[in-house]
Design goal:
about 180 residues, alpha+beta, Lipocalin, Transcription Regulator spoIIAA, 2 domains, eight-stranded antiparallel sheet, 10 strands, about 30% helix, globular, Tricorn_C1
């Protein structure tokens, strides 16, 4: 039996403050670190675990609603305020080793960024077959265009070109070098 903790449209800070620790989402490829008054959200693939957002516990309480914590506190679920799916999290003993490994790569390494981009979709996007897109083939076709000297603008253009065949209005790609939306 789960106990629901509801506080209108957002959660109070103490609700998340008592969930201090490291949590992995079931699906969605996220790892959430909750500290006393701060959170950090990571996006995880089999080769990376990169920080994508951070903020105060209060801000986290405005991002999720309808918190349900399992007895014993080893799992919780909540709705994202902007979504319809309930996201479930399980407690981890600590941050994945891939967080440290990800720090070893330069943020502007085009080859690493391409691999993380490709893996994120490979591991999280479920509609390749339905859309008739051979994602493995896209990797094979575009990888030769990437090297240590590939500009960030060119890398962005390649990523957008890889996404175009999906024709999926739920996908957006934003960077300082451009914006892509189907």
């Amino acid at each position: 039996m789960k106990t629901a903790q509801r506080h209108g449209s957002s959660l109070s800070s103490p609700d998340f403050a008592r969930l201090q620790g490291v949590w992995r989402s079931q699906g969605y490829g996220n790892v959430l670190l909750i500290e006393e008054d701060w959170y950090t959200l990571f996006e995880e693939t089999s080769i990376s675990c990169l920080k994508i957002d951070e903020g105060s516990i209060e801000e986290l309480g405005h991002y999720y609603e309808d918190l349900e914590v399992s007895p014993g506190g080893q799992a919780f679920s909540a709705h994202r305020v902007t979504g319809v799916a309930r996201i479930r999290f399980r407690r981890l003993k600590g941050l994945p080793a891939s967080v440290t490994e990800s720090h070893r790569h330069r943020a502007n390494d085009p080859q690493y960024n391409f691999d993380v981009f490709w893996r994120t979709f490979h591991e999280q996007y479920a509609l390749f077959e339905l859309k008739g897109v051979a994602w493995d083939r896209a990797h094979h076709d575009y990888l030769p265009q990437i090297n240590a000297n590939t500009s960030q603008e060119t890398l962005f253009a390649i990523m957008a070109a890889m996404l175009r065949p999906l024709k999926d209005g739920h996908i957006r790609l934003h960077s300082p070098w451009g914006h892509y939306r189907a």
